[in-house]
Write a structure and sequence with these properties.
Elements (H helix, E strand, L loop, with lengths): L2 E4 L2 E8 L6 E5 L13 H4 L4 E5 L16 H14 L5 E6 L1 H12 L4 E7 L8 H14 L5 H8 L2 H5 L3 H12 L2 H13 L13 E6 L7 H11 L4 E5 L5 H4 L1 H12 L5 H16 L1 H9 L6 H15 L7 H15 L2 H12 L5 H15 L1 H17 L9 H10 L1
Parallel strand pairs: 3-4, 3-5, 5-6, 6-7, 7-8
Antiparallel strand pairs: 1-2, 2-4
Helix pairs in contact: 2-3, 4-8, 12-13, 12-14, 15-16, 15-17, 16-18, 17-18
Length: 404
């Protein structure tokens, strides 16, 4: 298992993705672990090398004795980054992770490219509230607070619907070492960054949930957004663990903030790269060779807008966009485009099972006759790709059966 020894503690971490991509560090809430970010990681890996870790006292990281501080937990992050030779990184922290992010933003801004502070605060309520929670856990363990915390983590509707993420978080919460949890409660209890927020000079996004009773917008995210220079804000219809209640909306906001904006030249370059990755070099080379003064603007429109603007949007992956295109082309009877995207898709993201489900769905909503044609085209492409044996004519099948 990957562990790093830093700042007098052993930290568990998970580093995923391509080394040449920029690094994004994800820091979880109190009472959870690095797996809290599972819904976002697959899509983030298309753009970042993602570093998740278990905060001191949580998950597989060491439970050190005594009370912790946000400074201690912030230095853990810097130590972990140093041990992995990561000099620059973007940082996204939620709740406790957001407090850690504030400390890093104030004290190590030169290490940051961008900062995301989700469902967090410059001061987490009254000190007495945390003293009470520390006392409850000390006397009754994690079971003494699990119901109260779950009602803060998730909205009533999510809890009533037997949400899989909520069920997983409950198990994580109950499995958290009480000593580690209490240590982090002390760090939150003592944290107050209100006098230092204006010194955060890195681009910052503040995310809040309008159903978050732990760190509501008023007095929490609102203060961060007002005090951190030029900070942006995003409010989601979610409770405290907004990345789990609204995983796709959280991801969309995260990527929109973290990914650089492209100018026309960069968009054209991105469009060519996406077009080649999606349709193949041979097809794109033929299209380029056929470009002339008459169709040059049209080719630029396709490359820069269709491929460089729409296909490169991070909210949908290439596989999903491919399926949408195939369904639309089948419904409209655009068979040349259907065959082209099908052929290139089978060489890359798509499998025969994807195609079958797509065509069955399209048959219901766009009509059986169109999908009948699509099945014939698909059968031919599957055979030529070697993904399915060729269908024998009925009389040949009868002859083969008679020989057995």
């Amino acid at each position: 298992m990957p562990f790093a020894h830093c700042n007098n503690a052993r930290l568990f971490y998970r580093l995923e993705g391509m080394p040449e991509k920029p690094v994004l560090i994800l820091s979880h809430s109190i009472g959870t672990d690095h797996a809290m970010w599972t819904p976002q990681v697959p899509d983030l890996l298309s753009h970042f090398q993602v570093l998740r870790y278990d905060t001191r006292g949580h998950g597989a990281s060491e439970v050190t004795k005594g009370e912790y501080s946000i400074e201690l937990l912030g230095r853990d992050v810097l130590g972990l980054a140093d041990s992995l030779n990561i000099r620059k990184f973007a940082f996204c922290g939620l709740s406790l992770g957001g407090a850690i992010g504030q400390w890093v933003g104030v004290n190590a801004a030169d290490r940051l490219t961008r900062l995301v502070l989700a469902n967090t605060s410059p001061k987490f309520g009254e000190r007495a509230n945390w003293e009470t929670r520390i006392k409850l856990v000390g006397e009754g363990g994690m079971a003494a607070i699990v119901d109260m915390v779950m009602q803060r983590f998730f909205s009533p509707r999510t809890l009533a619907n037997s949400n899989a993420y909520a069920s997983t978080v409950k198990l994580l919460l109950l499995g958290t070492d009480p000593a580690g949890y209490v240590g982090c409660c002390a760090a939150i209890r003592d944290f107050d960054s209100r006098e230092t927020l204006r010194s955060i000079r890195v681009p910052t996004l503040v995310i809040s949930g309008d159903r978050d009773i732990s760190t509501p917008w008023a007095g929490n995210g609102e203060v961060l957004a007002e005090q951190i220079p030029k900070a942006r804000s995003l409010q989601l219809p979610a409770a405290h663990l907004s990345n789990l209640e609204r995983p796709l909306s959280f991801l969309a906001g995260l990527l929109e903030f973290l990914l650089p904006e492209l100018d026309d030249v960069q968009r054209s370059a991105a469009g060519f790269a996406m077009r080649r990755a999606t349709l193949g070099d041979d097809y794109v080379d033929r299209a380029i060779a056929a470009t002339n003064d008459f169709n040059r603007e049209f080719q630029d429109l396709i490359t820069r807008y269709a491929w460089g603007t729409i296909w490169t949007r991070p909210q949908l992956d290439v596989r999903t966009r491919r399926l949408l295109v195939l369904a639309t082309m089948a419904a409209l009877g655009r068979w040349e485009e259907f065959a082209m995207h099908l052929r290139s898709g089978l060489q890359r993201e798509l499998e025969p099972c994807d195609l079958k489900e797509l065509l069955l769905q399209t048959a219901i909503y766009a009509g059986v006759p169109a999908v009948n044609t699509a099945f014939h085209i698909a059968q031919k492409e599957l055979e030529e790709a070697g993904l399915q044996p060729a269908l024998q004519p009925p009389h040949e099948a009868e002859k083969n059966e008679a020989k057995k």
